[in-house]
Design goal:
Helix content of chain A: 25-40%
Structural class of chain A: alpha+beta
Strand content of chain A: 15-25%
Radius of gyration of chain A: 23 Å
Shape of chain A: globular
Oligomer: homodimer
CATH superfamily of the largest domain in chain A: Zn peptidases
CATH architecture of the largest domain in chain A: 3-Layer(aba) Sandwich
Number of helices of chain A: 14
Chain lengths: 465, 465
């Protein structure tokens, strides 16, 4: 922390001038990137996802990176390297992803998901903030350095994957397999949000994920609810009953053993979170709700950043069209996911959930719990030169010291980087609350893109300063 | 019951002989009727539905009925009258419908839905049993009487509608508007099934219906389940929790006041139901389930015929596609319907359900309960000349006394006939379990058609005997 204050830096004038001069091209190219519907979850978009990879490959090669697109069993990984820094210079690995969430429901987008549009200082598009826009900040920060100085102060590896939105299944094995090539002194990731407009933020923790599909099967076909209703276990009702057992009256998760491995957060981090300017009433207003939920006796930020959850993500059974159809469904399905905190493990949670469901499922239906994907939770140390450099660069670009925040979401690969590469991971994001990362009308602040470009260009200088 | 036994009747030889001699023509004409895809739910079939009405009109006129096709705001109603019975003879109104269910999914039909085909003594076609085949039994029974005797022993009105499969919306007002013209001493309807092969059946009760859509609204848009999960009331989970409060542990409906108006069935009817040859293990096997559900302490037939229900018909929230999407849904929906028994009323049930939901809904979400449609339950008296006549005619045609059965489903118009025309309603059906009335491979037993023709021709004699 003392290092952070060693000088009141400014964004170097040469980088700032180049970024200003190239501003419209930077956004034009970002728009090209955003127009490619690289929805990794949908096989009908596989061609688009490949196209996004090829597009990014070309851009990295063009700025002077030795770039390789490496196939995996899923979407390919791009590894772009620049290793001409002075001897002894450290190596920074920048990670991002070129795939995006599905855009549905399409009719809730104000402008089409894949037609980037600026309104009120916000750039709207699927992937604008998650993560094409933020990955683009790094690519263009590197280009600024190379264009202005003809070199970089550090060696840089850019690692971009196309499966983040479907669980990064092939990235951990990839990192393990290429551990030597990816060896680095720090990992930098921008795939998160700032605490509030104007408040740059360093992310100190991520929740893990354990995502399941629960299927309840009853009669071998849909039945007429009049002719059979009242004598058959209804799979939709059984599902509702099972889901209703998953929380207790105080909002805690009622699965036996669920909290056993939860390690409490350091007092200083919790204290810092409590001092952040956060308003429950504003939060409720933004969400359009009259009351909040979750565990009683915890602050909202504690609930979001430090506590595990269990949420229903989707639910489907029987007739869901217009009007009345008197069907007794043969099957029902819910998507259910847990966010995990250190040291919970998705495999253990799977076992506990399966045991719980087995215990509460009524006779007359068959219930299966299929794990769809998992990721371990993560917590950073926050000490060392990359964090100090980030503090100075963010201070310079945003005009104030960053705050330390937690994150309720998951970036499963962060834990893998820390584990395999044994390097500190700096998570510095330029999104903002309300950015609709996985919802219609996703956006990124144009001002944050500009300040992010300057901060990330400067970060490389500061890291070796 | 004493009346029923007054003579061991046989099907009159003249009617029997005529029906045998005309057997192939009867089926040929039925096939013509079945080939017309009169799918009332689909506007692209409106021409076919009109064609079915015209076809039936012509057949009724040809056998000597004064026939009129009367337009409604939907599909037309056919009223065919024969009023030349001796002075003082009673009037019988026969009701049926010429529309059919949609045939989809088409690929599950062994032979095409609108190409009638006989296999193993079953006539397969959409509408074979529901209701063209059963309506046709009456038309040809009337023709037999008229052909052989030159007259009918009673006055007869045939009332055929084309909207039964879409809720008979215009029939109740039609009956009210034409109450004088439709005045009668008994209503006869064949639109149901026999309890089992060889066991003729009289239907003594129908359950009513109260169908609702429950919508739970939380945050004004879908949220990222990582970024917001654990601090917001999840509308999908809230819906599950609300649905789970609707039954108690014994399978009874836990809505306050729900059973207040339930009038128990006569002991003799319940005793008759318990003596019917019904096997729970066969029922389970047919449905592909290992255990049955519903109220503890009731037999399956009691549950299906004499007890009210609450079933989930459909459920939808959030992401339901392939794979994992970490969304916290902004809204969730369930279709929920109650089957009602005398003297429950759908409007009262709506009020009770709304009060219940209001009480159990968590803060942080807004819940609405929208009624989609309702129909009152119905129970017959089973006494009087039309029932006694039916017992004798069924005994003669099938060689055994009919049993009294209930029906879990609803035929809303039955209650309307009873209420407006103040006449007893005889429900005597010739379908069979497994007939696939609303599913692919709908069929009617050819033998049941032949016996039904004889029973219904004889019914008119017995009614005045």
């Amino acid at each position: 922390m003392t290092m952070a204050a060693k000088k009141a830096s400014k964004v170097p004038a040469d980088l700032d001038a180049w970024l200003s001069a190239n501003d419209s091209r930077i956004f034009d190219e970002l728009n090209e990137f955003l127009k490619i519907p690289s929805v990794s979850a949908r096989s009908e978009h596989d061609g688009d996802t490949r196209r996004a990879a090829a597009w990014l490959h070309e851009k990295l090669a063009k700025i002077g990176f030795t770039t390789e697109t490496i196939p995996t069993a899923g979407h390919p990984v791009i590894v772009a390297e620049w290793r001409k820094a002075p001897p002894g210079a450290p190596t920074v690995l920048i990670y991002g992803h070129y795939d995006v969430q599905p855009p549905e429901p399409l009719d809730l987008w104000t402008s089409p998901a894949f037609e980037p549009t600026i309104r009120d200082g916000k750039l709207f598009a699927r992937g604008a903030v998650d993560d094409k826009g933020q990955l683009w900040i790094h690519v263009k920060a590197l280009e600024a350095q190379l264009a202005v100085r003809g070199t970089l102060p550090v060696n840089v590896i850019v690692l971009a994957e196309g499966e983040e939105e479907i669980g990064s299944e092939h990235l951990a094995p990839f990192v393990e397999q290429h551990a030597n090539r990816l060896a680095c002194d720090a990992v930098v990731i921008s795939d998160s949000a700032m605490f509030a407009p104007g408040i740059p933020s360093i992310l100190s923790s991520l929740r893990g994920l354990a995502y399941f599909e629960i299927t309840v099967r009853g009669p071998s076909s849909d039945l007429h609810s009049g002719m059979y209703g009242g004598a058959v276990v209804n799979p939709a009702m059984a599902l509702a009953q099972i889901l209703a057992t998953l929380h207790d009256k105080r909002g805690k998760i009622a699965i036996k053993g669920f909290y056993d491995k939860v390690r409490s957060f350091p007092a200083a981090v919790l204290k810092g979170m409590r001092s952040l300017p956060f308003s429950d009433s504003r939060f409720k207003k933004d969400l359009g709700v009259k009351a909040l939920g979750g565990e009683t006796g915890k602050t909202t930020l504690e609930k979001l950043w430090t506590r595990p959850t269990l949420e229903v993500n989707g639910m489907l059974s029987g007739y869901t069209g217009e009007g009345a159809k008197t069907v007794l469904p043969g099957v029902s399905m819910a998507k259910v996911s847990c966010r995990l905190v250190p040291d919970q493990d998705p495999d253990v949670i799977e076992r506990l959930l399966k045991a719980h469901v087995k215990k509460v499922a009524p006779a007359g239906v068959t219930v299966t719990v299929q794990p769809l994907h998992g990721g371990k939770p993560w917590r950073a140390d926050l000490d060392g030169p990359i964090f100090d450099a980030a503090r100075r660069a963010l201070q310079a670009a945003f005009g104030r010291q960053p705050v330390i925040v937690g994150e309720g979401g998951s970036i499963p690969v962060v834990g893998d980087f820390a584990r395999v590469l044994k390097a500190p991971v700096l998570l510095v994001g330029f999104g903002l609350p309300g950015e609709n990362a996985h919802a219609p009308d996703e956006w990124i602040s144009v001002d944050n893109v500009r300040r992010g470009l300057r901060a990330m260009a400067m970060l490389l200088d500061e890291y070796v300063a």
